[in-house]
């Protein structure tokens, strides 16, 4: 366990800091959008590291914490260490009204007794401390602030927190940069940094090249904590754009086709930049077994899936049958969690892909494995379906047209139409819909009918 390291070199036990915060974090942390263990109580915290970035001076202090939230295991799951979360804790005597939404609570005991603590990323000054640390390539305790020396980071950029729902936290600096702080962190090479760096080396303009990043080196483990990239000023994310066009009754097929071309360009560049593998019978068996295991766990978690289980399982078995007959597929590094919200359209009409972290709920090693590119395609097809069902009345014909246009655009660049491999496409779309059912049941129950409608279609049809 690391000590709390301050810029002045003094040290304090992380346990003392965490003891001050423990009762407040038990209430605050489970209410955060990015907290992964919803539905299970937090029974305690284990400190991983604590770093003082600004010493409390009566006006403002700033701590960087990595803590494990200990929770009882989910039903049927083995006991394992708690998830590790990255927290930026601001310390003030009292919060000004503008920071009221950031309040964590008032500390009663320990080294921070009598002070008010809050989520520091809501506050301009603490957020600017992070940017300055990256600009100067600072090292504080186990934290490493690094950057691409070819890119300039100007000082004086004003920070603002992005408040849109997401599984991490993003801060924009003067419409020039955007910093994505990962909230749930694991040791290892994170694809959210690895993939954009590889694409930058290939000269792929569809993904903003990383400007700087934050890592931690603790007890022999390396963590990626955040990535700074150029901010695409004036860009609209694909989800917002699709809903806007749907509300106006406008056609979206031209944008869907362009987005298909952008996806294929990224896949093509990734196939050049990083190794590809061939998936034969044994590899496909492992892949299909994983899909079946996720289905079984999902049925236990969401009983509404039960009636569809045989039909959903048939989608995976059909893929296994093809592999047993000798079919092979090429796998490569992909986006891993592609949907309309992970795409940005610039005012000039250029589409970019962002957020290469993959599905955060899945193990890091799995997220870094080569996969058939159709997994990304299936995710985007599900996203068109989500958009169509989020309006009243729903617009299934809109989704059908967009799905077709997206696949056509992809084919124009990749030279291969994903629809010509319907068994593979159905399997991946089914796997994605099952993931969505579990996610919505846990986080947004009102949205559950959307993936369930896809489950009904996928379980009762032979092909997508």
Task: Write up what this structure looks like.
The protein is of the alpha+beta class. It has two domains: about 5-230, no CATH class; about 235-460, Aminoglycoside phosphotransferase (APH), C-terminal lobe (Aminoglycoside 3'-phosphotransferase, Chain: A, domain 2, Alpha-Beta Complex). About 40% of the residues lie in helices and about 20% in strands. The protein contains twelve helices and 20 strands. It has a seven-stranded antiparallel beta sheet with strand order 8-9-14-15-12-11-10, covered by helices on one side. Strands 3, 4, 5, 6, 7 and 13 form a six-stranded antiparallel beta sheet that branches. A three-stranded antiparallel beta sheet has the order 16-19-20. Strand 1 and strand 2 (about 10) form a beta hairpin. It is globular, with a radius of gyration of 23 Å.
Give the helix/strand layout.
Elements: E1 4-5, E2 11-12, H1 14-28, E3 44-54, E4 61-70, E5 83-92, E6 103-106, E7 116-119, H2 124-135, E8 139-140, E9 143-147, E10 159-161, E11 169-173, E12 177-181, E13 184-185, H3 191-201, E14 212-218, E15 221-230, E16 236-237, H4 238-248, H5 253-273, E17 277-279, H6 281-301, H7 309-324, E18 329-331, E19 343-345, E20 351-353, H8 364-367, H9 374-389, H10 396-414, H11 422-443, H12 449-459
> Kindly, what is the distance between the CA atoms of the first and last residues, rounded to a whole number of angstroms?
51 Å
Mean pLDDT: 92
- Quaternary structure classification: single chain
Low-confidence stretches: 1-11
Beta content comes to 15-25%
Secondary structure tally: strands: 20
Main sheet: strand order: 8-9-14-15-12-11-10
Count of discrete structural domains? 2
Structural class: alpha+beta
The Rg value, from CA coordinates, equals 23 Å
Q: State the share of residues found in helices, binned by percent.
A: 25-40%
The number of helices is: 12
Largest sheet: 7 strands, antiparallel
What shape does the CA trace take? globular
């Amino acid at each position: 366990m690391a000590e709390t390291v301050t810029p002045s070199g003094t040290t304090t036990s992380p346990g003392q800091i965490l003891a001050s915060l423990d009762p407040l974090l038990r209430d605050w942390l489970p209410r955060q959008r990015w907290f992964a263990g919803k539905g299970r109580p937090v029974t305690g915290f284990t400190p991983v590291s604590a770093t003082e970035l600004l010493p409390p001076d009566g006006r403002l202090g700033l701590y960087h914490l990595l803590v494990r939230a200990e929770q009882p295991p989910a039903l049927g799951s083995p006991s394992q260490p708690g998830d590790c979360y990255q927290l930026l804790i601001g310390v003030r005597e009292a919060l000004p009204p503008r920071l009221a939404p950031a309040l964590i609570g008032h500390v009663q005991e320990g080294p921070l007794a009598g002070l008010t603590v809050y989520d520091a990323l809501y506050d301009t000054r603490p957020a600017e401390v992070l940017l300055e640390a990256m600009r100067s390539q600072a090292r504080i305790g186990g934290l490493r602030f690094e950057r691409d020396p070819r890119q300039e980071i100007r000082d004086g950029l004003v920070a603002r927190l992005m408040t849109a729902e997401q599984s991490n936290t993003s801060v924009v600096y003067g419409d020039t940069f955007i910093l994505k702080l990962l909230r749930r962190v694991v040791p290892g090479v994170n694809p959210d940094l690895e993939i954009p760096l590889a694409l930058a080396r290939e000269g792929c303009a569809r993904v903003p090249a990383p400007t700087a990043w934050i890592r931690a080196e603790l007890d022999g483990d390396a963590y990626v904590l955040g990535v700074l990239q150029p901010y695409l000023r004036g860009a609209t994310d694909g989800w917002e754009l699709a809903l806007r066009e749907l509300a106006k009754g406008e056609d979206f097929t031209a944008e869907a086709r362009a987005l298909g071309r952008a996806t294929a360009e990224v896949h093509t560049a990734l196939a050049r930049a990083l190794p590809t593998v061939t998936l034969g019978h044994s590899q496909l068996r492992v892949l299909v077994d994983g899909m079946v295991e996720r289905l079984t766990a999902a049925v236990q978690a969401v009983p509404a899936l039960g009636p569809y289980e045989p039909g959903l399982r048939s989608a995976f078995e059909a893929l296994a049958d093809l592999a047993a007959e000798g079919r092979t597929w090429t796998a490569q590094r992909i986006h891993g969690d592609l949907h309309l919200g992970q795409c940005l359209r610039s005012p000039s009409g250029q589409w970019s892909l962002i957020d290469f972290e993959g599905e955060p709920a899945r193990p890091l090693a799995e997220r870094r494995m080569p996969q058939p590119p159709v997994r990304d395609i299936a995710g985007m097809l599900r996203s068109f379906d989500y958009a169509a069902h989020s309006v009243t009345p729903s617009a299934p014909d809109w989704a059908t047209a967009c799905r077709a246009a997206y696949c056509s655009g992809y084919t124009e660049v990749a030279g291969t139409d994903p629809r010509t491999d319907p068994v593979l496409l159905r399997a991946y779309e089914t796997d994605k819909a099952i993931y969505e059912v579990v996610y919505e049941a846990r986080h947004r129950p009102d949205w559950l009918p959307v993936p369930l409608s896809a489950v009904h279609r996928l379980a009762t049809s032979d092909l997508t």
